[in-house]
Amino acid sequence: MKRLFLFAALAVAAFCANAQENTKPSVKLYGFIRNYMDFDTRENQSSNSDQFNMIPKDENRNAYGDDLNQRPDIHLLSITTRLGLNITGPEFLGAKTSAKIESDFAGFGSNNTVLRIRQAWAKMEWEKQSLLVGQAWHPMMGDMMPDVFSLATGSPFTPFSRTPQARYDYKAGKVTLTATALYQLQYLSYGPNANDLEASTTSFEYARKAIIPELYFQAMYKNGGFMAGAGVDILTLKPRTEFVDNNGVKVKSDELLHSFSPTLFASYKNGNWGVKSRVTYAQNASHLNMLSGFGVTKIKYNGEVEYGNLSSITGWIDVTYKQQLEKGTLTWCLFGGYGKNLVCDKDFVSSKMMYVRGFKNLDSYWRVAPSVLYTHNAMQVGVEYEPTTASYGTMKADGSVDKERSVTNHRVCLMMKYNF
Predict the structure, then answer these.
(1) Residue 49 pLDDT > 90
(2) Could you report the per-residue pLDDT of 253-311, keeping only the tens digit for each?
(3) CA distance 390 to 361
């Protein structure tokens, strides 16, 4: 009898151990060590220690006529070195489960070497449906990115954001329908500083206080090497939660701002050739790292205000060719982007009551950037030439610009990257 109990106990222990083994998640480490060296011929609007480059700054002439922004700069940094974990787990409610944690060293801090979360999400995937919850690429750009290797990844000509979200996908044959609710964290909207209409800042409070999450809807078609899609981003902000009325009493503000940003995109790959393109009509899309925003168009009799969106249109295209060598490959890429300020349908009360990413007197901007990337085993080295031209002028009441002048920055970027 004792032997029978011992055998049963061993069987139960073996079964539990096997069950635990079958339910244990599989974890795979990945990442790279990346070094960027970039040289600029003038001052730019940029971030991440100037590695995330957007557009050159306007002229800043002194009494002698010298442009103080026309001065060169050079950097060599490793802060975009990345670490990540891809996790696959046991079944849950009939769905395959997976998760991702990803970080780099380009977070906020006085020395710009702070570990930050890039992505952190969990996903359930059924035969035709999937649900992702956590911080991930914004679906407006994450499903198709340019093939440039510069850190800005085509910004500001394309949306760029990673943000907390709940994303639902439904696959119907070759079509995938997407509905996403998003919340701001790292990439923020511009707006008035506290309740001072003449001071601008960034904050996630504008979106949180509106209660309604940012919404994104998309339909995408895939067939072999061809992909095409359309989407629309809907953003609701509450720029102020309270204001002082004519009687000197602080009261609640109910004014909301609604913004709509549709986008069209397509890509095609055939053998070693590939082409991608996207066009975006953006309203108040500063949270997408685009040169955009909004402003006050009317101050009412009681002190409440009305807002208007600053609109723009951007587009980009890149063409790639992968050349096979005896050892490794060369990837040639040519990127082109253009953006145009489309102003507001109403006049702004004052330029001080405009809240924008970029510059208020910006009219248009464009870039043509060739690059080549050599890959062999775990190592990649590349060089990219990135000239960017921006046209500035005198701003009018609706946000349009006249008396234009252009400035150009010439950036040369060198990269060495070790993947693991």
Answers:
(1) no
(2) 999 999 999 999 999 999 999 999 999 999 999 999 999 999 999 999 898 999 999 99
(3) 11
Q: What is the pLDDT of residues 71-118, one digit of tens each?
A: 999 999 999 999 999 999 999 999 999 999 999 998 876 666 789 999
Q: 161 near 141, Cβ under 8 Å?
A: yes
CATH of domain 26-419: 2.40.160.10
Average pLDDT over residues 195-214: 94
Beta bridge partners of 217: 179, 232
Whole-Å CA distances, 15 to 9, 91, 128: 10, 18, 33
Residue type, 329: T
Helix/strand number for the chain, H first, E second: 3, 25
Q: Quick one: tokens of 305?
A: 């205000």
Six-digit token string for 22: 């079958």
Element (H, E) at 8: helix 2-23
DSSP letter at 67 equals B
State the Cα–Cα distance between residues 224 and 199, nearest whole angstrom: 51
Q: What is the 3-state secondary structure (H, E, C) of 31-51?
A: EEEEEEEEEECCCEEEECCCC
Planar angle of CA 48, 53, 56, nearest 5 degrees: 130
Cα 217 off chain centre by: 17
Per-domain residue ranges for the chain? 26-419
